[in-house]
Amino acid sequence: MKWIFVVCFLISNALLGQKILWEEGNKLNWNNFKSKINRRGGDNVVAYTNCGWIYSYEKSSNPKAPIKIEVQTVFNEDKSWKDVKRINDYVLLHEQKHFDAAEVFARKLRKEISEKIKTSSDFDKYFQGIYSKILKQYQDFQRVYDGETKNGMMEEKQSEYNRIIAEELENYKSYKTS
């Protein structure tokens, strides 16, 4: 039954083209930004990246049984927007870094899960707390990133964040998905 769901999920995503899974080396392009609605508002917003994580798990009713948890980073095409009159490669790089930062925090989440959740019982006790903690860190990072770079307009700060995000991806490379 699970495999049928996975196959249907993958087929529907391929047909609808609304979600992109983060993969090393694959970069966003402006065609991926399909929303017609500026969800962030404001005249200074040139583009908006809607990304985050999806997770799934296989859990037993036996509290001591091992558990399998999968976390994936996704970019939501149908919720990501661009101002076609003002986009350029530099803005696209800033938006790519939002997606890359989502992967950094997915790796941090995978790390904590692998260290603290081994059984179904562990999942029940710890997953929501771990998830909520990492989600808050992720949201705080994204907010500070946009604030300090002025949505990518401060080139020196943008370069600094490009380096920070690249370093964090490298630091947590053992927690990337295969």
Describe what this molecule looks like in 3D.
There is one protein chain. The longest helix is centred in the last third of the chain and has 30 residues. With 178 residues, this protein is of the alpha+beta class. α2 runs antiparallel to α3 and α2 runs parallel beside α4. The chain starts with a helix and ends in a 7-residue tail after the last helix. The strands form two sheets. It has a three-stranded antiparallel beta sheet with strand order 1-4-3, with helices on both faces. Strands 2-5 form a two-stranded antiparallel sheet. It is built from four helices and five strands; from the N terminus they run αβββββααα. The chain is 51% helix and 13% strand. The N terminus is likely disordered.
Question: What are its keywords?
Answer:
two-stranded antiparallel sheet, disordered N terminus, about 180 residues, 5 strands, 4 helices, alpha+beta, elongated, three-stranded antiparallel β-sheet, single chain
